[in-house]
Amino acid sequence: YRQGLKQYCNPTYELGVADGAAGKPSSVILARQGLCMNNQVHFDDSRYQQGRAKGLVSFCTYQNGQQIGASGAAAPAV
Fold it and tell me: How far is CA 32 from CA 4, 40, 59, 60, 72, in A?
């Protein structure tokens, strides 16, 4: 459990790229922080955030914005 929790509390660059490209808000990962702190496991999302920034470049396009707007959905809080 502790080994798995260490991985959970240190999300990867690759996950960040995937989440950024999908337009997922960073609050999804930041919500993990409480569990990590409660179990005294260091939370480090720096690599994740670097990857997410790269992924957001491919998400934040005119076409994606137009599709989201045309569907009537709210713009994601990226």
Answer: 13, 12, 23, 25, 30
